[in-house]
Specification:
It is built from 1 helix and 4 strands; from the N terminus they run αββββ. By secondary structure, the chain is mainly beta. A two-stranded antiparallel ribbon has the order 1-2.
Length: 73
Amino acid sequence: MPVLESFDVSSQLVIGSRRLRPEQRRRSRFTCLEALRFTDENMARAVDPGLFDVMLGTSSTSLTTVPLEVAGN
């Protein structure tokens, strides 16, 4: 049985960016858990478990999609 979302999450959400000079390479780290949190019916901060697609790339036309699985309790 599929897990139902308790909150309608935006289909696409920008959670971080970093501007680099042409030909510059740099490792970047973004924390995405806070972007997935919402306030539930008990006014508690929550994150629904499930599979999310994370898109990474040099521009909006050059993206690689990787899966992110958020486990339940």
